[in-house]
Specification:
Elements lengths: L1 H20 L1 H15 L6 H23 L6 H15 L4 H32 L2 H26 L4 H12 L6 H11 L4 E10 L12 E4 L2 E7 L4 E6 L5 H8 L6 E4 L3 E3 L3 H13 L8 E3 L4 H8 L1 H16 L3 H16 L4 H8 L3 H15 L6 H16 L4 H5 L3
Parallel strand pairs: 5-7
Antiparallel strand pairs: 1-4, 1-5, 1-6, 2-3, 3-4
Helix pairs in contact: 1-3, 1-5, 2-3, 2-5, 3-4, 4-6, 5-6, 7-8, 10-11, 11-16, 12-16, 13-14, 13-15, 14-15
Length: 401
């Protein structure tokens, strides 16, 4: 019996030792599968951090397999991981799913390493292996709940409230501003910018939920039911850098406001970000920067004026049957995007150049405005922007509803 147990342990030890040599490969596999299962889009620095965490966890688990009677460093690391997960505001169920994936990955690769000859022997150790994984996930969950009880009343909820107060339309007083700056560990002076994603996406823009740093910028993420928001301390970076960081995280429309000088003005950047994201078309995802959507933002901020502009400029077009109306408006939109080139417009719309020219002439006749006159072109462009951005269905608008 003793000899059999020794043989069982030898098989496990040898198999575990082979897994240690493949630790980078196993880590990449675990991180990739976790991201897919959780529908996460991970920024580079978040993936690197998660990979480091997974590598340390797998290494500790393999050490325990090799030396089951030794120091249980894997349990200490699991507790540290649970605490870290809670402080970052990540859900406990995702952590437990990570441990289940890691346990399955370890067991499947242990069987593969043992080979056909050792698989039957290794099966006798299945209970011990699974108990070890269960103990790790239990330790992580216990530490998570302890940290959550400590943090939620005074930490995460206060951070969320501080961000909400800064982004609200009501200007914060000096005391509120200083309190928010201390809590978020941010300076009163900027520059700052705000980005908004609609609709709120549980696992996209806020994949790095919490407070993170990247490329010299500092991000304060805020998940909401209606939208996800992020307050960014730019440092020496600019909107181009913010867009570069957010683009791989974007699964829905995102609006980026204008940079502002300090925390006291971030509500203005938030308002502009909201207008920018409203300018996005339905076929997303799309990142809209307010500095590149100023005409649309102006119209969205003045909805009554925008409606009047649409009726005045496009009224005769909107009463046409839907098929003809959309053909004219789509042609105008494509022509504007193609910098006034009829050839490029025809290529974009998959039609003949003469068709483009005919539709543009017809549009000018109906609106009594010439695309060759700068003032008329401004009218047509703004009216088109207002029509596309309005939440009112085109059929209702066309019928005068």
């Amino acid at each position: 019996m003793v000899a059999a147990e020794a043989l069982d342990r030898t098989v496990v030890t040898v198999a575990a030792r082979s897994l240690r040599a493949r630790l980078p490969e196993l880590t990449d596999h675990l991180v990739g599968e976790f991201a897919v299962r959780e529908e996460l889009v991970l920024a580079d620095e978040v993936r690197t951090s998660l990979a480091q965490l997974c590598a340390e966890g797998l290494r500790a688990a393999i050490t325990t397999l090799e030396q089951p009677d030794g120091d249980r460093a894997d349990l200490r690391l699991a507790a540290e991981t649970g605490t870290l997960w809670a402080t970052r505001g990540l859900p406990l169920d995702s952590l437990l799913r990570l441990y289940r994936l890691a346990g399955r990955l370890l067991w499947e690769n242990l069987l593969q390493a043992a080979g056909p000859a050792g698989a039957s022997t290794l099966a006798y150790q299945a209970g011990a292996v699974l108990r070890g994984i269960d103990q790790e996930s239990t330790a992580a969950a216990a530490a998570y709940r302890q940290a959550e009880r400590r943090l939620l009343p005074r930490g995460l909820l206060r951070v969320a409230a501080a961000i909400d107060a800064l982004l609200s339309g009501r200007p914060p007083d000096a005391t509120e501003l200083e309190s928010a700056a201390d809590l978020l560990e941010l300076p009163l002076t900027g520059p700052y910018v705000v980005a908004v994603q609609r609709p709120g996406a549980q696992r996209s823009l806020v994949a790095a939920h919490g407070r993170t740093s990247h490329r010299g910028m500092r991000f304060c993420w805020r998940r909401g039911r209606d939208a996800d928001r992020v307050l960014v301390l730019l440092g020496s970076a600019g909107p181009d850098d913010v867009e570069a960081v957010l683009r791989p995280l974007t699964l829905h429309h995102v609006g980026i406001g204008l940079p502002v000088a300090g925390l006291a003005e971030v509500a203005k950047s938030h308002r502009y970000a909201e207008l920018a994201v409203r300018s996005c078309r339905a076929d997303g995802p799309e990142i809209a920067r307010f500095d590149r959507r100023l005409p649309q933002g102006l119209l969205l901020a003045q909805p009554e004026l925008a409606d009047d502009l649409v009726r005045e400029v496009l009224g005769a077009v909107l009463v046409l049957p839907a098929r003809y109306r959309e053909a004219l408006l789509d042609t105008l939109e494509a022509w504007l995007c193609c910098d006034g080139s009829a050839v490029a417009t025809a290529r974009a719309l998959y039609c003949h150049r003469n068709t483009v020219l005919y539709r543009l002439r017809r549009l000018q006749e109906l609106t009594t405005r010439s695309l060759g006159k700068p003032c008329d072109l401004v009218d047509l462009t703004l009216a088109l922007y207002a029509f596309r951005a309005s939440p009112t269905p085109s059929t209702a608008r066309a019928s005068g509803a």
